[in-house]
């Protein structure tokens, strides 16, 4: 039901020029038989984890691994069309996105391993503003960002979402904010980790789906409210650990 709902919503919204924040260009999926060996060792590990989790949730079939590889390779090729060339020694500014694509993997699971549906959805989704915040590889070396922003290698999720989380945390949860300052660790570092991983390994699958759906339906600012609500939920634990 969720798959159908977000599919129809994104398909409808992406037809409106006022809602399309990014241009998507045209892209036709590669027909080649994509194998796991075509991916980096980090991506291969991510694929194995995703497929194992998908089978545990009874969402994927036996041959899901090749389909997920197909989705990831095509996403990389599709997004490459909108990247600029930057010469830098920074790991995060190399041609390939340095991490694993947790958002595309989440959509693959929501679509029950249907590679065509997943790719179609991601292509339409990529023109919406919310894609910049939910799908981190979306803005990797992106031509949609100013050159100086790209060269710093800092993702907008860090200086937008994570920055606003810290501002709200001061007002909403001052004790949690103080606890972080005392620890010498910033809430934005934690948030960036949560957001990059789409809350995998932190929340249950149904909650991960709710997070993705809420941000798609209500806007990227709900990513910030979600992080604040998690901090509120963890407040007593955080304060207890601070005392200890």
Automatic annotation (TrEMBL):
Residues 1-243 form the BROMI C-terminal Rab TBC-like domain. It holds the Pfam family BROMI_C. InterPro entries: BROMI_C, Rab-GAP_TBC_sf. This is BROMI protein.
């Amino acid at each position: 039901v969720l798959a159908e709902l977000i599919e129809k919503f994104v398909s409808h919204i992406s037809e409106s020029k006022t809602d399309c924040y990014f241009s998507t260009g045209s892209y036709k999926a590669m027909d080649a038989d994509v194998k796991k060996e075509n991916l980096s060792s980090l991506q291969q590990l991510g694929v194995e984890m995703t497929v194992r989790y998908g089978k545990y949730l009874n969402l994927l079939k036996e041959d899901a691994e090749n389909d997920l590889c197909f989705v990831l390779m095509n996403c990389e090729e599709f997004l490459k069309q909108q990247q600029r060339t930057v010469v830098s020694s920074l790991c995060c500014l190399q041609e390939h996105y340095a991490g694993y694509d947790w958002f595309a993997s989440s959509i693959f699971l929501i679509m029950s391993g249907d590679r065509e549906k997943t790719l179609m959805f991601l292509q339409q989704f990529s023109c919406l503003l919310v894609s910049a915040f939910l799908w981190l590889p979306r803005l990797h070396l992106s031509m949609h960002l100013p050159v100086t922003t790209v060269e710093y290698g800092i993702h907008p999720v860090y200086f937008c979402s994570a920055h606003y989380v810290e501002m709200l945390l001061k007002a909403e949860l001052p004790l949690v904010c103080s606890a972080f300052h005392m620890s010498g660790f910033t809430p934005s570092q934690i948030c960036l980790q949560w957001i990059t991983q789409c809350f995998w390994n932190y929340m249950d699958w149904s909650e991960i789906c709710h997070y993705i759906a809420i941000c798609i339906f209500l806007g990227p600012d709900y990513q910030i409210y979600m992080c604040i609500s998690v901090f509120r939920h963890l407040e007593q634990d955080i304060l207890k650990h601070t005392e200890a």
